[in-house]
């Protein structure tokens, strides 16, 4: 069986001047997940619930420190301030693994930067199976899209586009207006050279390669096809074309996102229904994992 799961783990940042999470930030990601869920049996959106944290205890005990120390995402985010970061960031890959294993998911859509987390999930599953003498948890395959598997920052082509980047100009947000998108693309970092005719010409030009990759993904073309059309042109015309394309593709999503953000009752109903369905799938599996470990209920 092929399955995939998404655990909505976003902890919203506080409103300015307070320690309370902003309601707008709390719901900011939910509408994006809700839109493809128009057919509930095919797509379930659920917040964290009881079975996943219960399994997280076992998944936290299994990994070796060496496994977690190799996680490049923690290294990137922590930087030189490793000792000042929360344990939650350090053990986040364990929680991700628990979410996947709680559903016996076998194929999980992730970005290229999450591949290492899927490998850790398999390590945890193999160790559990070995220690318990069973074949309980299946192997998990990372489903990585062929195009734009890792979208880079608009301000630094060597860094991943991230909502935690302090610069709003570094990313496209699903609630951005057409003017926001156009302005961010115009301000995106590039170089003074024209676009090449071959992909090899982008090997040492990360910002240019990023914009070409975004265009290719949004237009369902290959990067080579994009270059064949824009070869020899400067970034002015290309950025205008990219901005128009992004507005065309993302404007309906942004409009629907804004509409859903105004209907908190609907969002809650989607989450509650999703939680019930997710729990009905995961809870029996988590109970069996606990029985194998020797937990009593």
From TrEMBL:
Q: Which Pfam families match?
A: tRNA-synt_1b (PF00579)
- Protein name per the record: tryptophan--tRNA ligase
Q: InterPro entries of this UniProt entry? A: aa-tRNA-synth_Ic, Rossmann-like_a/b/a_fold, Trp-tRNA-ligase, Trp-tRNA_synthetase
The UniProt record lists the EC number as 6.1.1.2
Q: Which SUPFAM superfamilies match?
A: Nucleotidylyl transferase
Q: Where is the composition biased (Polar residues)?
A: 31-47
Give the span(s) annotated as Disordered.
27-48
Q: What GO biological process terms are annotated to this protein in UniProt?
A: tryptophanyl-tRNA aminoacylation
Q: Does the keyword Aminoacyl-tRNA synthetase apply?
A: yes
Per the record, its GO cellular-component terms are: cytosol
Which molecular-function annotation in GO is an example for this chain?
tryptophan-tRNA ligase activity
Q: Does the keyword Disulfide bond apply?
A: no
The family assignment reads: Belongs to the class-I aminoacyl-tRNA synthetase family.
Q: Species name for this entry?
A: Gluconobacter oxydans (strain 621H)
């Amino acid at each position: 069986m092929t399955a995939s799961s998404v655990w909505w783990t976003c902890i919203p940042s506080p409103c300015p001047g307070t320690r309370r999470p902003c309601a707008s930030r709390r719901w900011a990601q939910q509408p994006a997940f809700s839109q493809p869920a128009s057919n509930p049996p095919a797509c379930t959106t659920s917040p964290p619930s009881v079975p996943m944290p219960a399994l997280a205890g076992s998944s936290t005990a299994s990994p070796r420190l060496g496994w977690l120390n190799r996680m490049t995402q923690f290294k990137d985010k922590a930087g030189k301030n490793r000792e000042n970061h929360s344990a939650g960031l350090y053990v986040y890959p364990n929680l991700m693994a628990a979410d996947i294993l709680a559903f016996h998911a076998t194929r999980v859509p992730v970005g290229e930067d999450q591949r290492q987390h899927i490998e850790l999930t398999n390590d945890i599953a193999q160790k559990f199976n070995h220690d318990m003498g069973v074949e309980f948890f299946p192997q998990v395959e990372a489903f990585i899209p062929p195009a734009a598997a890792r979208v880079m920052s608009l301000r630094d082509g060597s860094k991943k586009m991230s909502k935690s980047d302090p610069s709003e100009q570094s990313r496209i947000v699903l609630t951005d207006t057409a003017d926001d998108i156009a302005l961010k693309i115009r301000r995106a970092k590039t170089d003074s050279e024209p676009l090449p005719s071959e992909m090899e010409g982008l090997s040492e030009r990360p910002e240019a390669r990023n914009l070409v990759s975004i265009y290719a993904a949004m237009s369902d073309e290959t990067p080579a096809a994009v270059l064949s059309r824009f070869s020899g042109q400067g970034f002015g015309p290309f950025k205008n074309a990219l901005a128009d394309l992004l507005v065309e593709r993302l404007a309906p999503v942004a409009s629907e996102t804004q509409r859903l953000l105004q209907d908190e009752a609907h969002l809650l109903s989607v989450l509650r229904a999703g939680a019930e369905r997710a729990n009905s799938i995961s809870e029996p599996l988590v109970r069996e994992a606990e029985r194998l470990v020797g937990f009593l209920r």
